[in-house]
Design goal:
Layout: H1 19-37, H2 58-63, E1 74-76, H3 80-83, H4 90-105, H5 110-115, E2 119-120, E3 131-135, H6 137-141, E4 153-157, E5 162-169, E6 195-197, H7 200-214, E7 226-230, H8 274-284, H9 287-302
Antiparallel strand pairs: 1-6, 2-3, 3-4, 4-5, 5-7
Length: about 325
């Protein structure tokens, strides 16, 4: 099912005021994604806007996913992030403490993530990014949810080379969980600070990530529910973006062999071990390294007055 709209959902364009642009760019995206899916043995249904032939029906892409946006956008599970969840709640602090303990004992460096099988996600390859998500496929597919010792994703600071939080993904057994669980085990209300991506970049990145493990390219209306927990945050423990306090200098050691100096160099793709870069190429193809510049150009091309189509490096 597609995620329901909420006041927190970021909507890029209003279909009633600007239907040609929104429909055109989403329609061209559908064709591009369908072409990318061809050959991946996709098995499809209307609710996820997939196709059996590898080409997506443009009406299905637009109608079946009414929250879809061209630019990155998220929808919240509900209003509890602002109405119920509290940074000072004992169970929020307990979860944050468990996350901190896991990072300090299991994942103190980028090298520790690499050794445990984590892979940098798409955002790692965007130029000048402040932080990125690293995911472990085995943890995405296991039965655990909200387990700080087996986080589906770890958030890495590129300036200080530091794991600084986690992102839980509600996918027990690899399947989307709806509703997602509350961090609160008490009767203080259902704090469910989960979000899902409804913009094209987030949805496509998730589909690409899962295609290797599932053996099929599923084009979803939204990603599974996800939830950040930041290690250093006094406020905004569950926030979408990193807190200003990211641990500060000095930078952490790399934890793997590299010519880079973490005290002077920002973490970047060229600093990764060759074997990990090859794993990324196997999973992402050429998309990740091209993504940042191509996205800016594609948005400009898709919204100008010329109907030249929309060119993103989907392959």
């Amino acid at each position: 099912m597609c995620a329901k709209s909420t006041p927190e959902t970021d909507v890029v364009e209003d279909e009633e005021t600007d239907p040609p642009t929104r429909r055109r760019v989403l329609s061209v995206a559908a064709g591009s994604i369908g072409a990318a899916a061809a050959g991946t043995n996709a098995v499809v249904d209307r609710t996820t806007a997939r196709t059996r032939t590898g080409t997506t029906d443009r009406r299905e892409f637009d109608v079946d996913c009414p929250d879809a946006t061209l630019e990155p956008a998220v929808t919240h599970y509900d209003h509890s992030l602002h109405d119920v969840c509290s940074d000072g709640h004992p169970e929020t602090r307990e979860l944050q403490y468990r996350v901190r303990s896991s990072l300090e004992s299991q994942y103190p460096t980028v090298g520790a993530l690499i050794d445990d099988g984590f892979l940098p996600y798409f955002d790692f390859f965007v130029e000048d990014v402040v932080y990125s998500h690293w995911l472990k496929p085995e943890y995405v597919q296991d039965d655990g949810v909200l387990d700080p010792s087996r986080p589906e994703s770890v958030l890495v600071d590129h300036e200080y080379w530091r794991p600084m939080g986690v992102m839980f993904v509600a996918t027990p057994g690899g399947d989307r969980l709806d509703p997602p669980p509350s961090p609160y085990g008490t009767t203080d209300g259902a704090c469910t600070p989960w979000h899902a991506h409804v913009g094209v970049p987030g949805r496509y990145a998730w589909a690409k990530f899962r295609a290797i493990d599932d053996g099929e390219f599923e084009w979803p209306c939204r990603t599974p529910w996800m939830m950040h927990v930041w290690n250093y945050a006094d406020e905004g423990v569950y926030a979408h973006h990193a807190p200003q306090d990211r641990g500060g200098s000095p930078a952490e050691p790399a934890g793997f062999e590299t010519d880079a100096d973490p005290t002077t160099d920002r973490l970047a793709p060229e600093h990764l071990p060759d074997a990990l870069r090859e794993r990324c190429r196997e999973r992402w193809g050429g998309v990740a390294e091209k993504w940042g510049d191509a996205w800016a150009s594609a948005w400009e091309d898709a919204t100008d007055d010329d109907d030249d189509g929309w060119d993103l490096p989907w392959e």
